[in-house]
Amino acid sequence: MVFYVFAIAMAFLVSSTVGLGGSLIAVPVMIVLFGAKSGIAVAALLLASNNIFKVIAYRQTIPWKGALVLAALTMLGTLIGAHLLLSLPDIWILAAVLSSLIWSLASEMRSQATHAWQPTTPSTSKPWLAKLWALVAGLTSGVSGTSGPLKGLAVRQFAADRQHYAGAASLISLVGDVTKASVFAEAALLGQQEFKLLLFVLPLMPLCAFGGRWLNWRLGERGFNYAFWIVIVGYSLRLVSQF
């Protein structure tokens, strides 16, 4: 049991430091404990609750206008994914996610000569692409329990620095996870045992949220870049492992 609590705490801390990535740890751990469908539901419940504290921690660095647009699209995609896309071949979503990752990673390597965060400018940002990625990220989240790398890539289209990135990602993650938890609760996948676990790990959430924000500030631009791409690649490996 100690291992599972530690894993949950690490999921909260990673998510709070980068703004996303918690499902990379939480989903497989909860599947081991509760089974596939219930595990994804519990992970959504835990991460949704943790995201409340993340939004509080990053409230001063959330680019509300852009983040709310992406959050709405993520919610729409999550609803569609949770209700409809379970009957579609998962390989289609996997192919789209991995293709986007390769494309984005190649673009990142060309532009990151100094390994520093490159602020988005009107000439380099692609708002339409961010919106498309947010929608598809929601679809992926509804199907597999994880939003995949596209949510992170969508946020990076308009986040000026790592604090604003984490703030925007926290808000979008909150909306997506609440949507998933609501859908799964209606499907009777969340019961008394799952909510007892939520209450048990609740004290970890504010500690990890504000601890993650402190780590975000201390990482530096280069360290945050490494953390960002570790999470993105990890998401993709998480998707590949399902097949």
What characterizes the major β-sheet? none
The H-and-E topology, N to C, reads as HHHHHHHHHH
Strand content: under 5%
Rg over alpha carbons: 17 Å
The domain count comes to 1
Helix/sheet category: mainly alpha
Mean pLDDT over the full residue set: 80
Low-confidence stretches: 119-124
Helix content: over 70%
Counting H and I runs of at least 4 residues, what is the number of helices?
10
Terminal CA distance reads 28 Å
Shape: globular
Number of strands: 0
Provide a descriptive summary of the structure in words.
The chain is an all-alpha fold. The protein has one domain (2-240). Helices cover 79% and strands 0% of the residues. The protein has ten helices and no strands. It has helices spanning 2-18, 22-34, 36-57, 64-83, 90-111, 127-144, 150-156, 162-186, 192-201, 204-240. Helix 3 (36-57) runs parallel beside helix 9 (192-201). The longest helix has 37 residues, at 204-240. The model is unreliable at 119-124 (pLDDT under 50).
Q: Would you spell out the secondary-structure blueprint of this structure?
A:
Blueprint: H1 2-18, H2 22-34, H3 36-57, H4 64-83, H5 90-111, H6 127-144, H7 150-156, H8 162-186, H9 192-201, H10 204-240
